[in-house]
Every structure is written in C-alpha cells, then in structure tokens.
C-alpha cells in the first residue's frame, strides 16, 4: 500500500550490464551484483511507456524452518521506459485480498503512473496466488489430506507474506530498505511489516487497509453488517426501483434451483453477496445495471437471463482466488482461538438480512438487504471451486493456535514514515477500527476522505498515491 534510496546501486549495476538480462535464457543464473544474490530473471517485455521484467524467488514455506520445503514466489518489476537505466528506489506493492495476485499492468494506469515517476515498482504475487506456487482446488490435493492442506495453508497469512518480502528484499536490493504500498489486505500486511521488520522499510503507504490491532473476526463482522445495511439503503436511495427488482430475483431463487454456467448454485444468500460491489466507486451503478436486465421472457415464462447469470458468476466466482474464502477469517485471528465461521454466526445477530419479502413487496415489513465481504460454510456447497476444499475449509475455521500479527508496543515506538488513506464508511474495513490503529502507530499521518470508496487507489488515478507521498514526505 507506503524517501529512502532503495537498492539504487544494485539496480543500476544490473541495468548497466547493457541489456544482458534481456537475453538470459529462462531459469538461467544471473551473476551476483553488489554482493547480493540476484533472483532468476525469466523474461522481459515492453509496453508503451513501460519495461516489465519477470522475477522468481524460492522462499521457505515455513520461515522458521529455512532448510525445509520451499515454494516459488513470482514478482513483476515495472519501470518507466524513459528511466530504464536510472538508479531508482524500489516500491513493492501488496495487493488486497487475501488470495489475490497483483494486478497485471497495461500501460501507465491509475496509481502506477504516479509511482513510476519516483520508483522501480515490484508487483508481488503473494504466496499461493497468480504465478507464485498456486493453492487451488487443483493443486492443494497434492499436499495430501485435508488436515495436511490446512497445515500448509496456515503458513499463508500476513506474517509469512512479510517474511517473503524480507527474503526478496535482501536479494533484490542488497539489503537496502524499500517503500511499501499496501492496498486493503496489503495494508494489513504493511502493519505487520511495521511490527516485525521495520528495518526493511523506508516508507509505508496504506490505502483502505489499517486493521484493528485487537479486533477479532467477531468484532470485525459486528461492525460490518450495519455498514452493509447502510450501503444497501443508500443504493436504494440512488436507484429506488432496485429494491423491487432485487426482491423479485430473491423470490424467484427461493422457488427455483438456479445453477449458473460455471456450476455455481445461485441461492438467495449467494445473490445477496452481490452487495460486495457496493464497496467500490462504480459498484452501485454496476449493481443497478445488473438488476435491471435480470429477467427474460421464455416459452416457460420469465427466467433469469443467461447474460445475468454469466455476470453474476464472474462476480461470485472463487476459482481464481480460493484463498479469499479459505483464509478470510484467519487474517483476523490472533488470540489463539478458532474463528468458528464468524461471519455466519454474527449474521444471526442481524435478522433483518433474512427478511426478503416477495416479488411485489416485503410482506413481513422488512427490507431486502445485500451483504458483502463475508464467507459462509454454505459457500462450500454452492461454489464449485470450493466444493473439493470443504473439509480443508472446515478445519481452518476450527483451527486454534493463531499467533499475533501486530505488535502494539513496537508500533507505538515506530520511526518509519507512514501515511494512510482512510475512506469514510469503507464497506470492507471499519473506519473506526482504522482510526484507532492510526492513533496507535507513532508518527502515522492520515487522510480521511469520502471522495472515494475502498478502491480509491485505482479509481482515483494519480490523486490518492500523490497525496500519500506528499504526506509521508511532510509536503502536505
């Protein structure tokens, strides 16, 4: 997600090899520079305005057992083509999630355009995602039993991601600190980084990702369900006809088994999860257009259209990010206790989410409410990418022994420059939790704004990153 000169000599030395890395065959060893082991470089590509270089790093699965099993981490280096041979500090980008790879750039888009003015950027596919050693329904059975899979995935939280970063930093920069930009869950990782390896950091920039330092999963969801309700009602204020449309779809799903083309079983509860769109800048409009074209007349009467089903399947699919479901509640677990399907249990405290009414009106007087960023045990039945991992997910939900991810005492003594964008009434990260954490991290500067939703770093183009850079440099 957060002006030291990180790794300048190493990068400049590599670039001054006169492009030799471009011609290095896949997997070839690259000579050590500045006393640091350079990772395997497997490809270099050019886009208008960009030079992209592929890097692969072998890291320990368990950093406490460095001689044990190793996994592969992929990262994409991005530099402005006009500055390809310049000695630049490094910025590593930590994506939101958990379970999502870094974005795949197409030119100098959104925040990247601003970052490339000052940095050589590393887009990290966090362990288990993207081109890093994958963790999916296809690959996890290689680990053995569900219990063995759960033990393996216990090494995929923020603490391990930070230690991966430190392993990579020492190879890539020769030990010099770098800047971290953490979005959403990437910001959680950045706070873990500040807690346990601040010596690796020159600056930290966080967007929509200041976690509650002591908020367990139950506290997170008790704060989240009221936000989901507010966001839903605000959507209906913008598009008053959408509540009737949503009720009609829910009534249809209550009476028909709807299996989407990818095998997803679309239940009422799964349909409600389209509320995840309401946490993004354009999400309310996308939801409206989706709802208004849901039905089509057929020989058998009105049915949900194939076009509607295809778009819903794309939004709800976990095929590309199963870790999002498997580890979502574990990212909040720090006290050694199991999460016990927290979102499902806490939902029972908010019965308004179970009042759906009928197609013409809410016969029970309730409103139709969308949910959002929650994971439930029924998803192991409705989502095809999760069905084979059902026992693994259940074991992770009941797993104990989770260790702390943050060190409040060390954060209170922080000396790393930090700036964070906190989005007013963020659907995904509780604003009050974020502000309490901001007050607990020494020297952290905040920018609280209602101009953007959770995806401000993308939707805001250069603006969000530029504001944070000026804050962290005491220029604003």
From TrEMBL:
Residues 89-286 form the AB hydrolase-1 domain. Keywords: Hydrolase. It comes from the Bacteria. GO terms for molecular function: hydrolase activity. SUPFAM superfamilies: alpha/beta-Hydrolases. Belongs to the peptidase S33 family. This is Alpha/beta hydrolase. It comes from Streptomyces hiroshimensis.
